[in-house]
Amino acid sequence: MTDLPAHAPDQAYIRVSALEAGHIEIPLDWAIDTAKEGEKSVVPALSFLLRHTQNNDLFVFDLGIRKDLENLPAGYLARIAKMGFRAEVPLDAADSLARGGLEPTDITHVCYSHIHFDHIGDSRPYTRATFVVGEGARALVADGWPKNPDALFAQDLLPEGRTRFLDPSDWPPLGPFPHAYDFYGDGSLYIVDAGSGHVAGHINVLARTSPDGGWVYLAGDSGHDRRLLTGEAKIPTHPYYGSEHLARIRTLMETYPRVRVLLAHDREWYEINKGGPAYWPGVMDSL
């Protein structure tokens, strides 16, 4: 295992702010093996605003849920109903940005951990942003709706000419992770390959949150319940999650006490922090 990179003189870092971007009720027995039959959990669909301290880049990681779910491809709406998901979106990511005086057109990069409906939000207002996704998303969108009437993903989800598909195959290792990419080239923000255990192209973000060694790890859907990280529960047997990557995240937590790990649906963190200073226009404290 490699070490996380040490901080340099005049080290650039990232100011991280959470964004309200909807909630989703999920059958809990999909997420953890200790759930009772029929048990449900209402979890946030977290979005994050990441602001580089030196180049003024505005980077949003995930957009949560869109308000007009009815405009998703019909195949995806059928799947949502079949899986028993129920979404509510009092505020989407654009509404949350506006609370701190930002418009979607101010955003430089929109990075999707993956392209499931509770992460892609409504991309249409982000007309000046470059979209950043894992390479595995390319084929899912190329064979998307309406070309494939049964597809879960729309062909126009990722704007042509403004999308970077990141191929992790030749990225070097970082900490416990086999592949990570130094996005700005200054050690402030890394895109981490999360493997294909959840969906093709799944990526996470490791962001430096202080000039002297604080970090946050935004784990996307590497797990859907914090008990998977603490060891209180395990992943049920089904094809939607990847335990190998979760084990690496646990190693990160155990090895580096100044890394805060957040899941995209981190209900426990949300209940403690909702409406507080970790939300934009506030800034999350660094460990």
UniProtKB/TrEMBL annotation:
Alphabetical keyword list: Hydrolase, Metal-binding, Zinc
Residues annotated as transmembrane: none
Pfam family, one: Lactamase_B
InterPro entries assigned: MBL_superfamily_lactonases (IPR051013), Metallo-B-lactamas (IPR001279), RibonucZ/Hydroxyglut_hydro (IPR036866)
Family matches, as CDD domains: metallo-hydrolase-like_MBL-fold (cd07730)
Domain Metallo-beta-lactamase residue range list: 44-265
Name of the molecule in the record: Metallo-hydrolase/oxidoreductase
Native source species: Trametes coccinea (strain BRFM310)
